[in-house]
Automatic annotation (TrEMBL):
GO MF annotation terms: transmembrane transporter activity
Organism per entry: Chelatococcus reniformis
Keyword tags: Membrane, Transmembrane, Transmembrane helix, Transport
GO CC, one annotated term: membrane
Listed name of the protein: MFS transporter
KW Lyase (keyword) present: no
Keyword Cell division: no
Highest taxon in the source lineage: Bacteria
Length: 494
């Protein structure tokens, strides 16, 4: 392959942006253009390290569902404290996304990419040796705090380093590892329960992530800084250097990188970069689109995800009705983990479809369709309450499986993708961080209130409420729609 791209005479190195270099496609020797831009080793390294962060989020958050009965037994907690366990890491994500996510606009994407994993490792070690229930909540919050930073930072460090025409599928392919982590968390929990018959076995569940997290942390020291961020900050020489590192390939191309100073001044000259900018008329619609549907989606996804083992244990009828000893508790937890693992598989299938379709169908159609599908799945699951035996089991499994498939095809994937695409570079971290934080208020509310509402109003009424929030998510998405499929991120906000 002859790596040359025809450009107008004299324009090879003039008036070019970072994304222009990243998006440049080669052509064959006969002049036939190649339709895709080949990824470099550095681009793949960035992608894989970001995907690992999403894996850890799914692993830790969904593992809590398996660990919760054992935690409750060891610390003799009340139903309200059950909610605290589920909500602690989610509240940490909320605060972390808001407090740390925006710092990537100040200190850089790479700096925060490393910092978040260091924080994650420290609190993961502390979590596995928690001496009491209050400390358990503090350490779960700390783990979530680190993962909250990962929401905007991982997305931005990928999307600002890869070609526009493959951005959707590559960002979502990394995001898919959240679903892989969710399944892994459930499977690891099951394996540990089968081999360590002790009430403290939940500690080993969390400890399994410590060494992999250390490896990922080390890897993040050896990636490039986001060249678009450097460019937006006026550090044009450093941006050119990082573009050369990012696009290093054999044979070497491009041989020189020269970014347009004039373009930088026109694009980012005197624009402010504080949180208030997100609510200016120029960005308000983007802020609503990035935040509100994600909030509504998290109401359902985290409530169903964290408490799927609990709901299944109550609905399937195979668990021990009255827990008399540790053996009964472990038996119930193992049965619930099996059912949860089967349902979690549909999360992976859903995100795989999203990866394939995001750059073809578009973000907005998939998000609207996904919300409607989530409502259908929750409505189907609600019918199980009116039946018993095999019919009830089939309805709840079918409903939850449809929900998990449609949420990852649509809102769970697309809200994450849109939040990192609809804002200008100089406030992209703050915008994506605010959207993730706002969304996690829904997750925290659900995680805390879900066990209480489950006991007070019952499964059916609770599922009806989530049907309504899903349909509202579809409506807000359509009314505030901004399609970003294939859009050059340098052009956002101009």
């Amino acid at each position: 392959m002859n790596i040359n791209t025809p450009l107008p005479a004299g324009e090879q190195t003039k008036h070019r942006t970072v994304q222009d270099y990243i998006d440049e496609t080669p052509m064959w020797a006969d002049g036939t253009a190649v339709t895709a831009t080949p990824m470099t080793p550095m681009q793949w390294r960035i992608w894989s390290l970001a995907a690992a962060g999403k894996f850890f989020e799914g692993l830790v958050v969904f593992m809590t569902g398996v660990a919760l009965p054992l935690i409750a037994q060891e610390f003799s907690i009340t139903p309200a404290q059950h909610g605290l366990v589920g909500a602690a890491s989610l509240f940490g994500i909320l605060i972390g996304a808001l407090a740390l996510g925006g710092l990537s606009d100040v200190f850089g994407r790479k700096f925060m990419f490393i910092a978040e994993m260091l924080i994650f490792m420290v609190f993961l070690v502390l979590l596995s040796i928690s001496p009491s229930f209050p400390w358990l909540i503090v350490f779960l919050f700390g783990v979530g705090f680190a993962l909250g930073c990962d929401y905007p930072t991982a997305h931005l460090i990928i999307s600002e380093s890869i070609p526009s025409n493959s951005r959707g599928r590559l960002v979502l392919a990394a995001f898919a590892f959240q679903a892989v982590g969710a399944l892994a968390g459930t499977v690891i929990g099951y394996i540990i329960l089968k081999n360590i018959s002790d009430v403290t076995s939940w500690r080993w569940m969390y400890a399994t992530a410590i060494i992999p997290a250390a490896v990922v942390t080390a890897g993040r020291f050896f990636i490039t800084e986001s060249a678009p961020w450097l460019f937006a900050k006026g550090l044009v020489d450093r941006a050119e250097h990082e573009v050369r590192r990012l696009l290093e390939r054999q044979p070497p191309y491009p041989k020189t990188v020269e970014l347009s100073r004039r373009h930088h001044h026109a694009a980012h000259g005197h624009e402010p970069a504080h949180y208030g900018v997100l609510f200016h008329a120029k960005n308000r619609r983007a802020t609503i689109l990035a935040s509100v549907p994600w909030f509504l989606q998290d109401l359902g996804t985290y409530g169903i995800g964290i408490f799927t083992p609990t709901i299944l244990a109550a609905s399937l009828g195979h668990a021990t009705g009255q827990v008399r000893n540790l053996a009964d508790l472990l038996n119930n937890d193992i049965l619930a983990a099996k059912g949860a693992a089967l349902i979690d598989v549909l999360l992976i299938f859903g995100i795989l479809f999203a990866v394939v379709l995001a750059d073809r169908v578009g973000r907005i159609p998939l998000q609207v369709m996904g919300f409607v599908g989530c409502a259908a799945g929750l409505l189907l699951a609600s019918f199980s309450v009116d039946y018993t035996g095999t019919t009830s089991t089939l309805l709840i499994f079918a409903g939850f499986m449809l929900f998990n498939f449609m949420t990852n095809l649509g809102p769970n994937a697309q809200t994450y993708l849109l939040a990192g695409e609809v804002f200008p570079t100089h406030v992209r971290g703050k915008g994506a961080g605010f959207a993730a934080a706002f969304a996690k208020t829904g997750a925290v509310i659900t995680a805390f209130l879900f066990p209480i509402l489950l006991a007070d109003i019952g499964t059916k009424n609770l599922l009806y409420i989530l049907v309504g929030t899903s349909l509202l998510g579809a409506l807000v998405t359509w009314l505030c729609r901004i399609e970003t499929t294939g859009v050059n991120l340098d052009e956002i906000g101009r």
